[in-house]
Amino acid sequence: xxxxxxxxxxxxxxxxxxxxxxxxxxxxxxxxxxxxxxxxxxxxxxxxxxxxxxxxxxxxxxxxxxxxxxxxxxxxxxxxxxxxxxxxxxxxxxxxxxxxxxxxxxxxxxxxxxxxxxxxxxxxxxxxxxxxxxxxxxxxxxxxxxxxxxxxxxxxxxxxxxxxxxxxxxxxxxxxxxxxxxxxxxxxxxxxxxxxxxxxxxxxxxxxxxxxxx
Length: 214
Fold this sequence. Notes:
single chain, Arc Repressor Mutant, subunit A, three-stranded antiparallel β-sheet, 61% helix, disordered N terminus, hydrolase, signal
């Protein structure tokens, strides 16, 4: 029996390390340790093989890990010590911007080559950056007299058109592609005669059925 207790010295050291993780504000490595603790609690390390005092401490540690794991997986900022509110808001804003931009691409450029769709997406991003328009994608595309009310437009979200629009939007949002109409802030259909507003602006590209201007 003494030999068995010595052989369990290393698992006990691991459990002591896990207890330290429980006491420290959680990190991703703690989540892995907590998962390991639940495996131990399931019977991988019999408590009967441990000295009485060590077994009691181990069970207490495992209870802490067992209680903490669901909250960690749920992103509970009280348990982890990490405030996820700002990150969640940024993620929600990013998702909303992605949808707003994809709707514009489907509505305005679904019949255009991919470069033409990307030009529209990059134009929206250029407006966000200038400070002359709204400070978000949804704000820019929903400004009166500019694009349209995206909340009132629900294109089908199955099929190639929507998938391409989402991929192009993500590329533009991440800045992952070179500009195809550098500096463009405005455009109109090529079949339309330019108004005086466009005649006073620099023409930077013609892509598909659209002409782009700074």
